[in-house]
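Hi there, hope your week has been kind to you so far. No rush at all, and the record is pasted right below.
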Amino acid sequence: MSGSRPSPGGVVVPLRPRGERDGGAARRPDASVRAGSSSGAGSSGRAGSSRRVERLLARGLDLGVVAAARAARGAADLAAGPGAAVGRRAVRTGKLLGRRVVGDYEVDELGFDEELTEEVLLDLLRPLYRRWFRVEVRGAERVPQGTGALLVSNHSGTVGIDALMTMVAVHDDVPGRRHLRVLAADVVLASPVLGDLARRAGITLASPGDAERLLRAGQLVGVWPEGYKGVGKHFRDRYRLQRFGRGGFVASALRAGVPIVPVAVVGAEEVYPKIGDVAPLARLLGLPYVPVTPFFPWLGPLGLVPLPTKWVLEIGEPVRTDLAPPGTAEDPAAVLDLADQVRETVQETLHALLLRRTSVFR
């Protein structure tokens, strides 16, 4: 398993092609291969202690997140009326917490914890998705089934909440109930708390190697090529796509031979309308920016509540890369040309959606 970057705790599940995962027997990897386990006779005691502390913190974080999420869901069930569903949920919660306590759970080589994502993290995001933003997905049937694909979307929302909502959309509203493996910047994964949760949700570093590996394994991978320039742009520049970088995402899709699926999201730009930036504080904290909105920091914590805008997520026709001539991925001009085509498709879709939109909030 050399070269893998497992998450602390649990059993490491090797990445496999989607057909093998779906058609094979139940996963039961060798329990001797565990994430975060020390190897090599030269490991120092201090490094081993550090890893043990890291594993304990990760397990504590897991238990805290699971307990909080389940308590909230249980309270909602009780408010809706007592019944058998509440009892079943309590039993499932007990089993889930029990497995977490003894470390009996599985992660893949990039740290993705499918059980935690299915049972807890998506549950936490669904109220925002369903009730707050009321996300409407169009063109869900265009996402290829039974193969890997690269979803390319515009970026907005100031804090990257659009990526989280797209994860829920792909799992809940796209046929197949698959997970979207999000490619994120290193600042997201660097935090000892946020970074661990992100990896467990299937988020990984935006690197060509990881992207190609996931695509070849039949995964759906999401990328937001505008990066910080897109998610943190000024409100006056909303829905104007920034540059798509050097087209690295196109090269990854070409090498893996998977389709590129353009995605346009309308509604996220108005969630936290950015009108300024506290640059000195951003430099002090090592962040790309610290946003100023009409409500933050003036209203304190209340200013962090996102506006309940109405979202539309439209999935476009896939662009087939398997038809490209051999060696296209190594041709910078061809890669940039294809990246520009995808960018123009997303921009045109945004314009069309905005022309049909009658209100930001409904």
Observations:
- The chain has a mean pLDDT of 82.
- The first helix runs from residue 18 to 23.
